[in-house]
Amino acid sequence: MARKYIFNGKEYKNHGRNNNSLGRLVYDIFTYYLKKHPYETYDSLKKIFNNTHCNLAVVYDENDYREWRKRKTDSRLDSRFFEPITYNNMQLYFTTQWGNSGGECNNIDNFVKLAIEELHMPIEVLEDGFMIDSEEKKTFVDAYYSFVKKLPLKNSGQYAKLFTTARNQPFKVYRNTQDSIVVHAFTDYSTSMVITLNQLSKVVFDNAQYLYSSYEPVLINRIQNNQLVRSEEIYNESESDVITGIGIGITQNKILYGPPGTGKTYQLQQLQNEYNKDNYVTVTFHQSYGYEDFVEGLKAEINDKGDVYYKVNNGIFKDICEQAEKTPDEKYAIFIDEINRGNISKIFGELITLIETSKRGMEIKLPYSKKPFKVPKNLSIIGTMNTADRSIAVLDTALRRRFEFEEMMPEPCHKDISDDIEGIDIQRLLAKMNERIEFLYDRDHTIGHAYFISCQDFESLSKIFKNKIIPLLQEYFYDDWEKINLVLNNNGFIYSKKYKQQELFSNCKDFDEFEDDKNIYSLNSEALHDEGRYIQIYDKIENQALGDGNANIES
Questions:
Q1: For tag attachment on the chain, is the N or C end more exposed, with fewer CB atoms within 10 Å?
Q2: Domain boundary, last residue among 127, 145, 163
Q3: Is the pTM of this model over 0.90?
């Protein structure tokens, strides 16, 4: 769980000795209390802050401090573990060591709970982007994670079987590595849907509409009633999915789909590790790719006499099928990157029937070689699809029915994305931009987390925006700079110049083709090197003269 706290307008989210650490949060709460209560005694402070329920001791006076010193042999512990505070004519010592490691996180949670409930401190709690501002919400969060931890991990070979409320239809339930819920229907054409804590909380607490109305009511009911998945609800992947008589795993017709930069190609490469290196092939579809490249075709050759003749050449798919048929006790795969960029009917031809799982082993006669051909049962076909190029809704219907579709959406809270690069929270930045893109365009054109995985410092962040993010937004919005500026929250990256027609074309008296005034937009390169501009994408910056990057050009 990614838990964060906001106190007095400041965010605390990590461990260590910096100004945003969770240990510093405890110090700021303590000093805030001292300012509001200037005449407390040491005994009363001890009663409040040296709380056994929180398993911590926050404050010592001179006597207790000396007693602590006697038990320690290392004199350096003074400066490392205590911070002196003068209060009400007393010398106090604030303990700093207990809150600086990840193992003390539960102590901090308990301390914050005490500060909110008993001291009435103005603290906001956020978890995975979800604001925990009531006991009811905290209970829901705890119940959600208790439920999720009992679910089988996706691709573990097991799933939990639950049933829809309306039609009592079964569906598969898993969890992914980010502790989100993954649901999957029992159909030939089915898409894996990812349901997050934030998504369910909006339905429960903000009366938001369901995204997946068949599944979310069931999940919410189970979570709210603490109905964890039972052992009898856990199943191995169904026998109909298993290659019969071989026992080598699951044959997959699967397409990984989502916006660019969500890790589809990376996932494809990871899946290749499950196969012997000689038992799979990889191909990328494109507009010029055809049946002759994929299955078989005629190739012109010249014999010794100089005569031209035509020879039937095997394509990459026919070769791997024949190889898999010779060794049926091994598993094979063909990985197709960018499967939606090719003309599916043109590439697969009559084989669109044979690739269906239930039609494996059925023979047809190929048009060029006139030889019988079949797609073996031990061959998986796994592809990727970029929804920014082409929506799944307009994909070839025959292909959609024969493939399982697994959605891969941006993960702003991905473990490899930093939440603190010189004060910039990349996770919040990406999440907020994608919310605006979804509002202005659609979810198929959001920005993937992979763009920011390599980002380790501010210099690399500015390069990513200049060379990748801004060009991608230009492509998405067809150079509609006003919408690009909206996505960036008018943070000054986009420079607007206003031109006046009469002054630009002063000698062209009859020139009236365009409006009198026109805004011309360009990239403000200097703003890309200003940390505050990035923060402004996801947060409103007060008392900071960032400007809006606009200018009026008179001539």
A1: C
A2: 127
A3: no
